[in-house]
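SAMPLE LOG
Freezer: B-3
Tube label: C17
Construct: single chain, 582 aa
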Amino acid sequence: MYHPFKRPKRLRETTNPSSYRARSPSPRLKQRHRGPTHPPSPNFLQFAGFVVAIIITGTLYISLSKLASRRTGTSPTPSYIEIGSTRIRSLAPSPKVIDRTVLHVLHDIHGPDDHHDLSPLTVSRPHLKWPPIVTRIPESKDVSELERAAVHAPSILTALAGADAARFDESVCGSFPCRFLLPLHIAEQEPKAYFHLHQLAILASSLNRTLVLPNVGNNRIGACSKWPLDSYYDVDLLRSALPAINTLPFTVFDNWSETRSILPTSRTISFSVGERDSLPDPLTDDDFTIDYGLADHKVASCLDSKFPRLHQSSSMTSFTFYRNNPIKQSTSWHLIQILSEAVDSVEHFSDELAALRLSDVLAIEWDLRRPIFPEPNIDLQYSHALVELAERLASFTGPYIAVHWQLERVPVENLAWCAASLVSTLRSVLEDDDSGLQLVWLATDYHTFSKQPSGVKTKSARSGTFRAVTPEIEEAMNILQDAFRTGGDLDGYAMTELPSQIKRLRMFEGNVQFEEIQKDSGVSGILDKLVSMQSQVFVSGSRACSKTSSSSKQIVEFRESVRRDKEIALDIRNVVELFGEW
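STRUCTURE (predicted):
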């Protein structure tokens, strides 16, 4: 085993590193030299030439070794030169550590004319034929032309990386270089976020870029979310509904950004709405303004953690639209002109916009509430797995009333009265129904009230934006729960929620999908919505008692379509019953 402090046996014989001594010939050498016992006296000139040759050879060897050491980064180690029976200790590195790369470097440093002092014609070597003078080092046959070219032309490595990136891009997106549009964050929650994803798909197609299908999580859509897009939506239907738009799965894009041999270029763009008074002088015809600044902290941290190779700049280009201005077709066309790589000249062009247009990836922060492109006529479709689970829950539960109550943004002074109105409406509906309805399914954005084995109730958030729980909200929910207790207005009836029903379904049937993400507020909201669509009776809040939401609107529209279409076999007895009407 190699040890850094263990020298070879031959080196141990020298005790004083700064001196040299003569060594007696070995017995074998004595047998070879069978000359006279007393050799003739040496000639003075021969001895002087011998010493000069030693000095020249040693000096040249040490100089070359120092040059090689500086080029290769190696430190000189003790070695020995033997001439006849004389042995000299030198600090020159062993010839074994000098590879041919160093020889090429030395060749480049010293031109052909630099070695005139080594010519045999100019070195006085009377009566000496050994050691020979080195005037040329032969080429090694095992050194390839590519290795020698890599030393003298590093650009070859760049060319090879470029060729590899071109092949990689063509395998991913069909062309080189790939041009992607990455939805980094969509501000509105599900289901409105789904329609904004349509807007980004149109923008990607207009810019001749591939849309990266983002992730989802906690009612949001964006690349920084946790779950794949098909956890919420039917991705195959989305692709078939938008056949002219190139899309790429998020996992494929993630692998591309991490393994591409050439670092991808990227820029971050923000689309938002602002008041006219708060905006600077517009750069365009009063449609929107363009500004440059630092990226939002959340955006920067997302890029750092998820896509470290994409976060090359802390700046962000912001497009701010006027809140009260109607968005015209000319506005969207002007925006495409600014962002499109195919357009040669653009008004108000800048170096920042030029770099943005040529970037491999445009990461989008989308905070618009109105469409800037014509809305596509595409029906919202959730994933097959969620739809199937909702059907199993509805069938397993039996006849039930679904209550959809969103408390966020309801005036706190209305909450107690709204809770009492809900109890009164439920009692009226249950007493008037002759089919024996006994169960109320509560779908709310407030909390879940699932019981633990110890009997203690735990609360789980059901909305990503509803965080501030006031005493008025707690009082309203206590009024509703007290109505189902013994002696309450709804005594004899039961109230249930999604977590409790999933737990019962798992106990009786097993194999409930989405085990890992059932606590995601987006998944629970979609399941509540799908279950409410299939309920026998549906109850929702008025504007005074419940936030007007797209989810409630979707439930009502679905139930209306079922009432019109007699071929759909669902037991739906009303469209909607409102509580909290003055």
